[in-house]
Structures are given as structure tokens and as C-alpha cells.
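pinned: reference chain
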Amino acid sequence: MAGWKLFCDRGPNGEAAAAGTRLALQDIPFNGVRAYQYLKQLCAIGPRPSGSPGMARQQKMLAEHFQKLGGQVEFQRFQVRDPRNGAWVPMANIIVRWHLRSTNRILLCAHYDTLPFPLEDPKNPRGTFVGANDSASGVALLMELAHEISALKINYGVDFVLLDGEEYIFREWDRMFLGSEYFAREYVKQQAQKRPKYRYRWGVLLDMIGDADLRILQERNCLWWRDTRPLVAEIWGIAARLGVREFVAKPMREVDFLDDHVMLHEIGRIPCIVVIDFDYPPWHTQGDTPDKCSPLSLAKVGWVIREWLKTVK
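pinned: its C-alpha cells
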């Protein structure tokens, strides 16, 4: 904890006083400590791959959490074939709705399944994977944001969507992004039928945002797509105004990057971007554990997203 306490002065609007200063945990009006506790609670369940007992425990925990805080919780259930043997695997996206009367809505999402095994682990690729950063971080941020979302004065309704089947894979060529694909196709069907009568104006995917060594670059698809460029500029601009230097206004080096936001954009036609720190050495290894994440990183990302929600037009 002591390593994160780098002080800066803030103005009356919570903005950093100077570009050269760094924010400390106590400077940020978003509860990163509680978000980090949620991250640890999720990891304490153990592995949470699609269709597993761990996933079932997580689903119960999340439904109770969001309902207690006033969210309308819906399970969007579907099935897919196991790539190993063709058996049916039950999956479910969890949709949590806030500000129900608004037909113009914002989509905030994160995948909540974990990789079945740590496929990139150099010592034991069939070991235990708890996915602290790669799944739990985005979910934990939404769990914390749920404490504030009902009281936020915003111009849109908000849906949290926890996506299943993002990486139910056992080999590199297995299909990924199953939950986001299903959600996007169902959204297209609903829009065609004009039922329900709502649309997503913007979408933000939160993935791997808890890294203690946080550095969030701009994903190239989001810069190439004409409809998402303004959203990238807006969110990174808010981060700059707040003094959250970990949002770096430069493109990621990966040119063929794929994540759930691609399904939501290309199939669902939702202007959706991803906020991700993909430079994470423990990625897909047994080392992706809570000690590699930090309350400060969760606080910084949560603050930026919350401020964007308050100002988005």
C-alpha cells in the first residue's frame, strides 16, 4: 500500500493540480479499496469457467449483490457446445438495469468467466487459474459502481452486462467471445422487432483494468471505427482532466486485437470501445492473482468511468 501513496494537490473539482503529479488512493473519490475486496472475494471462489460449480457460486453472489443495491437483474441464458467433446455447456450473461425509464442507454460490460486452465503458464498449463485481473477486475469495478449508479444524475439509462463464455477455450483455435456474440445477436433481433424500445448510444468494455502497473492505451479498432473515435477521445480526455495519467492517448501496438467489444460493435452495431491494459505479464498464467492488482488502479479507472457517465451527452 505504501508504494501507491504518491501525493498531489487537487482543485475543487477533483482535478489534478499539475500534469507532473501522481494521484494517491486518498485523492480519488471512488472506493478502490472496496472494489479490491470484491476482486478478492471473486477469486476466493476459485476457478469460475463457464458451466462450472464456481461459476454457479459467482452467479448467485453477483445476482444478490446487484439486487440488494437496487439493480434489476436478468439472466440471459444460452448453451454452447464444449469444444472438446460436443457436450452442451450452460452459459448465462447477467444483465443489470438501472434508470429503467430511459430508452437511450449506456452499456457497461465485462466478462465474468475465467479461462478453464492457465494455457500460457510456462510450468503448468493445466493448473489453477483464478483470473484476478483477467475477469475479476472489471466485475469488481461494476460491483463497486453499483453503490453509486442509482444516485448519479445522468442523461441515459445504464445496463451492466456480465458476459459469459469470453474464453471457454482449451486450445488457441477454439471459439471465443460466445456471450458477447449471443448478446449482440439478441439485441439485433430485439431492435428489428422494436421490442424492447431502447437503444445503446455507447458501450464500454472493461477488461484487465486492475493491474498494479497500470497503463491503458487506446485499442486500434476503436480508433479505426468512425463511430467510436469520439468516445475514445472523450474518455481519455476526462482521464487527462482528472490527472489519471495511466490513460495514455497512444494506440496499442497490437493491430489484430480482439475482445468482446468487437462482437458488440460488428454484430450488434453498438458503438463500443474497450478499456484494457493488455501489457500484463501474468496473463493466462497461474500468476494472475489478487496480489498483482491494486485498489489504486481500480479507483482510477472507476473514477474516470463514473465522471464520464455524469457528463456524457
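why pinned: The helical segments are 32-45, 53-68, 132-149, 178-193, 220-224, 229-242, 260-266, 295-311. Residues 2-311 form a domain with the Aminopeptidase fold (CATH 3.40.630.10).
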